[in-house]
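Protein folding task:
====================
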Amino acid sequence: MRFSIARASGFTGLAVVLLMLTVAAWGKNFTPDIRPGEGVTEQRKLSDYFAPLKGTNLDTDVFILDSGQPGATGLLLGGTHGNELAGSVAALVMVENSVVRQGKLIVIPYANRSAISMRDTRNGIKRQHAIQSRSGKRFLPYGDRRTDPADQGQADPDDYENPAGYVLKNGAESRNLNRTYPGDPEGTRTEQVTYAIIALIKEEQVDISLDMHEADTPERKVQTDGDYRPGGNRRLAYTLVSHPRGIEIAAFALLALEEDIEVSMKLEESNTKYRGLSHLEIGNATDCLSFLSESPNPGQDRWRSDGDVVNDPKYPLTHRVGLHLRLFKNLADAYADYHGEALIIEGLPEYQDLLAGSIGRFLN
């Protein structure tokens, strides 16, 4: 069922109740704490686009910010992986602050709600991270990379052949949302989520999408003893991956990013031989120009024993959130220049404003 939601107000009075609900929600019936701002015109569920998800732990909130004016339609995806905090928080900042003046924006802060309900099995990062928001104390959840096996409803296979026909030797990747595109209505629960996202993109006629991710930082542990560990895939940090049809728009977005905030990112075109990822399969299955961004998360570094995913001095959450948000704005601007359809968003904090303090200043 689709319904309009009331404007958010009186956050201070609700803070205690929301905090109690957040703390109580950890576990099987985890419900993310999202506090929509006045720019949200409608709230839906992903099951509105694929009904079998209703009532499962993979059904998730979808927020619509519709200007009512003709323009481009954008989709912002956070929480594909529950242990990649900046994407989800960037989506929260968008939902809780922005107003769309032209076009329409769709935001899914927790694309894999099941993954965010689990404890991080990669590095054991704690599940709750306390911040001071505009209404008081609030917790940011940190989860796992994959769907909870209990929500998947079936054992991991030895090898996993995804809906795009690509075979992965690690069967647990059947629970990795970003290996299951374009989804399968008769497939696993995780495949049904990606099927629903594709259905949303088709129904809403989405023009551009950004799937926000995090990776290992570019840092290496200094080799002082036999415990030297270089980490995982360090090359992914500060990367934008583009569907082949969107490569020129992506290039202009990155040029603007370097000019505006003096951050350089690498540009990669989707590898058409490696199937199942959002940046390739969304663009293949729909008319949408699909992109995927990677920010550096200290919590992804296997060599760290105490990665600070919020306040790391070199890679603070504010920097990573600002990077994703600015990149999405630049992609929308470049799309408007190429196609003449604008997505105009107001109310978002500037990158430098984010860096000037804590992330909680921009959360309700």
The first helix runs from residue 11 to 24. Residues 32 and 263 are 31 Å apart (CA to CA). Residues 1-26 have pLDDT under 50 and may be disordered. Residues 32-218+229-362 form a domain with the Aminopeptidase fold (CATH 3.40.630.10).
